[in-house]
């Protein structure tokens, strides 16, 4: 895998809006926090644009992203928010210059499109918190600090309590995945991630249980849950029963569809909530589920 260079204070961070539009105050707040961390910021020309739901037209959003990909001064491209829209521009982008000089691309939720696409191109990226969720009053939170630490090469391993539904075991493989609905929507496209022998991460927000079940079943039928080295489940946030008689819990739904030959770790602190800690997509990791759950990144010498 290609590993983007570590960022350092004084480097330039680019902010783009590849999907849903965002309020100006959120960008202003993020710029202030990033400046306080010692970095310069370039905000995309159309980052605050609006075209009904979207942050500008497909042409405007893709032009912004392309400019960030091609700008050698930019060392990290930070997506402003999720929502929907990244899939509409991914095929408009030319990654030729990017692959010659890779840089970190960071975000989550809708940004799963970019994570999966980049893995297929052989490049790592950062799953993590975005300006929409930066603390509104300029306070530097732990997840924001952790995101910039990871981009700077200060990668921390994780230890957290094992969930009652977690399944014990140990597995090692390249980390892939992201938002479940996006992963299901990518099946059949050139951005769909391969999962055989890999550690799959999933998270979701605001879905009814039967729709969550349908998406898990879609991954299962596509073979994406077979032959995994492990499954890590992040936030399953604001999920709703929906159909009263479909009363399986989200944890039960996951376990109904996954294989029985690899560990399953529920409760990883990443997803649609404030404590959204970073993951390096495309990096080899080891997950161990026992009395506690451990996630260790390959070649991590940071202490």
Describe what this molecule looks like in 3D:
The chain has 303 residues and is an alpha/beta fold. It folds into 2 domains: 12-151, Murein tetrapeptidase LD-carboxypeptidase, N-terminal domain (Rossmann fold, 3-Layer(aba) Sandwich); 158-297, LD-carboxypeptidase A C-terminal domain-like (Glucose Oxidase, domain 1, 3-Layer(bba) Sandwich), CATH 3.50.30. It contains 8 helices and 13 strands. Strands 6-13-12-7-8-9-10 form a 7-stranded mixed β-sheet. A 6-stranded mixed β-sheet has the order 2-1-3-4-5-11, with helices on both faces. Helix 6 packs across helix 7 (209-221) and helix 7 packs parallel to helix 8 (250-257). The protein is globular. The model has no long low-confidence stretch (mean pLDDT 96).
Nutshell version of this structure?
The chain has 303 residues and is α/β, with parallel strands linked by helices. The chain contains 8 helices and 13 strands.
The spatial strand order of the largest sheet comes to 6-13-12-7-8-9-10
CATH architecture tag of the largest domain: 3-Layer(aba) Sandwich
| Cα shape | globular
Question: Which whole number gives the mean pLDDT?
Answer: 96
Helix and strand pattern: EHEHEHEHEHEEHEHEHEEEE
Largest sheet: 7 strands, mixed
Secondary structure blueprint with pairings:
Elements: E1 12-16, H1 24-36, E2 40-43, H2 58-70, E3 74-79, H3 96-100, E4 104-107, H4 112-120, E5 125-127, H5 142-151, E6 158-161, E7 169-179, H6 180-186, E8 199-205, H7 209-221, E9 230-237, H8 250-257, E10 264-266, E11 279-281, E12 284-289, E13 292-297
Parallel strand pairs: 1-2, 1-3, 3-4, 4-5, 7-8, 8-9, 9-10
Antiparallel strand pairs: 5-11, 6-13, 7-12, 12-13
